[in-house]
Fold each of these.
Amino acid sequence: MKRIGSNNPGRRDIVRAVLKAQEIERHKIGLELHDNINQILVSVRLYIDAIERDPQCRNDLIATAKKYLDLAIAEIRVLGKRRVMPPKGFDLKELIDELVMDMNDRTDTTFSCMVPDDLAIDDDLKLNIFRIVQEQIMNILKHACASAANVTIGHVGKALLIKITDNGKGFNPSIRRKGIGITNMINRVESYNGGVLIDSKPGQGCAIEIRIPY
């Protein structure tokens, strides 16, 4: 009988880490589908039921139902984009600008962004920076109730500096939150020996400052 598997503890640890990362990703997708898209589609169903009960309001209710369907389509499109890796040699500034413009087209929160044109970092770090910005933008949309947010990326010496602020409802950083967005962001930063500073209080918005050596 042939034994299948590895006796190498290091290899087993790597396999466990990969499997754990996959489970976390599946959990995130499940949360997105349940908390965002499912709730939007439930709203559409409620408006359709209302049309059946009150045909006189048909036009207004149909218009609102269409608005929610468009929102569900946009959420699915964003969810798909978040899972697709950008092409090799992608422009970080262009990608973040596109993300910000997309958000401004479909939300009440106004995003602004400043990324230097001459940011020379490798693709792996660029991808992680993009995911960090993307993660926090989603956090702002889901939880902050902000009217404005700002993303700034720059560098001092050999350190990359990222600051993401919003004027939303804020939170207490010392209280454990149910979501995994900020935890994922911190894990990405720490994997590059970087640091994260979160400055937020209830009712006073949020400012996240990130420093990553490169």
Note: The CA atoms of residues 37 and 72 lie 6 Å apart.
Amino acid sequence: MQLAETSMKGDADSALLARILAGDTRAFSELMRKYNRRLYRVARSILRDDAEAEDALQDAYLLAYRALPDFRGESALGTWLTRIVMNAALMRHRKAGRLAEVIALGADLPVDQELAAEPPPDPAGQPEHSALRAEARRLIEMKIDELPEAFRTVFMLRALEELNVEETAATLGIPEATVRSRYFRARALLRAALASEIEGAFEDAFMFDGARCDRIVDGVMGRLDSIHEA
């Protein structure tokens, strides 16, 4: 079943790629909307800033657009795009002078890195369920931001984007065993920082709403129009 789904995704991407290479800019807009959430979350995991992640994503899309004619399909299109976004985010990180404490995604990490545990929010102080979920989501996002970078990106792809171990390993270029180890340790760190009662809010973390999606697509398409007019 999973192989069939992967094949269908590949066929859909191939069709989009053919349209883009034929000059159909609308197809590129469709491609962005298809991968926006995953790629934004990857950029966000590196930069830990919403606006910076959006800017990095737009830069990456422009780079990808120019490079699409050279795409040979040696990896899945989503994997290829993810690597471009990771590089764009890391370049922006370096330019901002904040890379001193960043650990490379492929580096080995000590096992004893831990986050300080904090008590969960008191349910009695959150009478409305919606307000509780909003607070839980805020806490989750904050604690994910505090994870070591290598853990953050693996966690984003595995837990939020629901990529399997093999897909995550291929995307990040690291062994499957490393993916399993980092994901397990990331979850352990988050459990130490959060109460298990709010783990159900993971699905809402780093929401990619319609406004952000539209803003990124419109920004990239506007810049592409400028390139075509030049």
Note: Confidence is low (pLDDT under 50) at residues 1-5, 98-127.
